[in-house]
Amino acid sequence: MTDAAPATRHIIVDTDTGIDDALALLYLAGRPDAEVAAITSVYGNTSVDNALTNIARVQQLAGLEDVVVARGAAGPIEGEPSIAWHVHGNDGLGDIWKDPISPRNLSPLSSAELIVEMARSKPGFYDLLPIGPLTNIGIALEIEPNLLTLFRSVVIMGGSGPFPPLGVSQMIDANIQNDPIAAGRVFAAPRRELVMVGVNVTADTIVDEQAVQALHRAGTEWGTFSAQILEAYMDFYQGAWGRRVSPAHDGLAAALLLEPRWITESERGPVNITSDGFAVRAHLMRTASGLPVSWRITPAPDTLVVLDADRDAFLADFVRIISGFPRI
User: Fold this and answer.
1) What's the CA gap between 196 and 212, in Å, rounded?
2) How far apart are CA 97 and CA 69, in angstroms?
3) Rounded Cα–Cα distance for residues 265 and 244 (Å)
4) DSSP structure class, residue 149
């Protein structure tokens, strides 16, 4: 007797296609239990136009050229965009390629419009995976206030979990900081299931030097692509840690959508957008010791906030698949 095949998740990926986003898309393309149903672009790691070029590169590599793509917001709902050129390179993928290309199947709808149209067409069928600033989702909520209730689940790469222990700082929460207004709309909206995979768990989910060497040795197009862009990512992160390693931020969020069993610790509760005058974050409204915060919070529906994950299981699966050796 054999185990039943896992149910396929039909996923709309909303992405500011930088290096870790591209790897997350490649990972989803290699999972037999995932169908990338649409890819919607947004600014963030790079400009929205570069994000479209980078989507096209992954589509070409991974055989996703028939997947519908949409052009999304070029900046936040209010203010100017903050583009992470210094992290992901001028083109968002480490400035390795010189020729811009375009997605073959570009929708006439904006990212927000396409997300709403697909959600309304099949309530409860699609999963939404926003792995960039939440601007497109914030705009989509203006069109359809019950948007998040129309998805099977929404898994966000962003947020910072609960408040950290005293004296402990956290990595920047870039996807939230880029558009706190949109993020506030998302965490306040009614939903079926909203999962926050924040920097509290992604920052130390590390693709190390040995993993990159394995990608180089794989001898596949996927492995070479993954190694090349990761080397560029590590050019930035070596300044933080003194080693050529990098976090798999978006890849972990993609994996936990497919493998919720890899979530080893979590808590449900309201998430609010906070600022300390320097950084804007999405926090679960409790302290590191589990106590309530010291001010009146803004009421919000519960979010499932990931506190810890099985990083070893994820990283083994992630590196194997982006090496070009999909699961059977």
Assistant:
1) 27
2) 21
3) 28
4) G
Cβ atoms 323, 211 nearer than 8 A: no
CA-based nearest residue to 169, from 132, 200, 192, 125: 200
Instruction: Assess contact for 146 and 32: CB atoms under 8 A.
Output: no
Assigned fold of 9-198+253-306: Inosine-uridine Nucleoside N-ribohydrolase; Chain A (3.90.245)
Question: How do the domains of the chain map onto residue ranges?
Answer: 9-198+253-306
Q: How far apart are the C-alpha atoms of 229 and 240, rounded to whole Å?
A: 18
Tokens representing 256? 């936990």
Task: Output the tens digit of pLDDT for each of the chain's 328 residues.
Answer: 344 456 899 999 999 999 999 999 999 999 999 999 999 999 999 999 999 999 999 999 999 999 999 999 999 999 999 999 999 999 999 999 988 899 989 999 999 999 999 999 999 999 999 999 999 999 999 999 999 999 999 999 999 999 999 999 899 999 999 999 999 999 999 999 999 999 999 999 999 999 999 999 999 999 999 999 999 999 999 998 999 999 999 999 999 999 999 999 999 999 999 999 999 999 999 999 999 999 999 999 999 999 999 999 999 999 999 999 866 5
